Amino acid sequence: YYIQPFDSFFILLLDFCTSLGHSYPGKPKIIRCHSLEKETFSCWWKPGSDGGLPTNYTLFYSKDSEEKIYECPDYETSGPNSCYFDRNHTNAWTTYNITVTAINEIGSNSSDPQYVDVASIVQPDAPVNLTLETKTSASITNLWAKWSPPPIADVRSNSHVYHYELRLKTEGMEEWETISVGVQTQYKVIRVQPGVKYVVQVRCMLDLGKWSEWSSERHIQISRGQSPPEKPTIIKCRSPEKETFTCWWKPASNGGYPITHTLLYSKEGTWFCPSDIFWNSTKVEIRSLYNTDCLERCHGTSNSIIACALLLATQPPK
Ligand SMILES: *[C@@H]1O[C@H](CO)[C@@H](O)[C@H](O)[C@H]1NC(C)=O
Ligand SMILES: *[C@@H]1O[C@H](CO)[C@@H](O)[C@H](O)[C@H]1NC(C)=O
Ligand SMILES: *[C@@H]1O[C@H](CO)[C@@H](O)[C@H](O)[C@H]1NC(C)=O
Ligand SMILES: *[C@@H]1O[C@H](CO)[C@@H](O)[C@H](O)[C@H]1NC(C)=O
Ligand SMILES: *[C@@H]1O[C@H](CO)[C@@H](O)[C@H](O)[C@H]1NC(C)=O
Ligand SMILES: *[C@@H]1O[C@H](CO)[C@@H](O)[C@H](O)[C@H]1NC(C)=O
């Protein structure tokens, strides 16, 4: 083998560099590829040793059996040592062959190729805003859980249908009970135990991807032995002189707990809260209803047990 002067120059340079502790860069390794919503994805790599020299990293990819090689469209968005594939560079039904090449002055070194099928690397963020509430009727307490899908930076992608799982356990216990919820963002856990404290979490999944992490925990104490009051009944209303009128009702049975009775009425479509009631108003027809929404019109959401009567507008009491 005849050494060309040109070659020998490089061999000398290489020897020189090696003697300074400089060398080819180590082999980079693709550590993770991940999509939050199947419409974009990112890959991250771990650099190898830098060979003591400034090293540049380049990500190349090809798609399915195409020969064409592309370079990473965006090295910035997903942070250092990453490549972000925006919507225009993401095709869920394509296998990507991805390689990262490290280059320094002496030479280059490439990672093993990573084959990425976008649909299988989808892992959404956990659902957010989980809230718990109990509702009791006919002395059976049910637990309602509600949540929102994970927020996504690119709102155009936020039309996805997630599948959810909910899990709950008694506080302090190890074992979770996991329930497949389907695509709803709420779930009713029937017949929870009074007096018990529950812990609840939810998670979500998109198509064939991976489950998200579990959401943050929510705790709720199911109150003991509370039951809603019975429906109160308005017995009669009377207007002796057509200037004022009075209504009487039969109080609800209270099961040992204090009950507030609130009488609401509307007149010509406008709602009146207790403090607004002027009994000099005329023309009301009274019906009794059991309606837990009626107090909320006045006081916002109330967790207390509510019994109320509703008066609906229109005709003068007899
Ligand atoms: C590439 O990196 C690997 C592992 O870091 C190393 O063993 C190998 O020598 C490097 N290749 C070259 C051509 O230097
Ligand atoms: C994607 O491509 C469309 C049409 O070619 C273009 O209008 C849009 O700006 C591109 N979006 C991104 C994020 O590059
Ligand atoms: C993937 O890409 C690498 C680097 O371009 C190439 O060596 C390898 O043959 C490709 N694999 C397939 C299955 O095409
Ligand atoms: C690394 O990239 C910078 C900026 O593109 C370039 O100036 C430099 O020559 C590159 N270094 C190597 C070793 O390729
Ligand atoms: C979650 O709750 C916060 C605070 O109430 C609200 O700002 C945010 O919009 C909610 N997020 C979703 C996705 O509903
Ligand atoms: C009804 O009573 C209220 C408060 O006492 C008073 O302000 C209002 O003018 C009365 N309305 C009528 C129609 O008499």
Annotated CATH homologous superfamily of the largest domain: Immunoglobulins
- CATH level 1 name of the largest domain: Mainly Beta
Biggest sheet features: 5 strands, antiparallel
- What is the count of distinct domains? 3
Fold topology:
Blueprint: H1 5-19, E1 29-34, E2 41-46, E3 56-63, E4 70-71, E5 82-85, E6 95-103, E7 108-110, E8 114-117, E9 128-137, E10 140-148, E11 163-170, E12 177-182, E13 186-189, E14 197-205, E15 218-221, E16 233-238, E17 246-250, E18 261-267, E19 270-272, E20 284-286, H2 296-299, E21 307-313
Parallel strand pairs: 18-21
Antiparallel strand pairs: 1-2, 2-5, 3-4, 3-6, 6-7, 6-8, 9-10, 10-13, 11-12, 11-14, 14-15, 16-17, 18-19, 20-21
Subcellular location: Membrane
Protein name: Prolactin receptor
Main location: membrane
Quick structural overview:
This is Prolactin receptor. This protein is mainly beta. 6% of the residues lie in helices and 39% in strands.
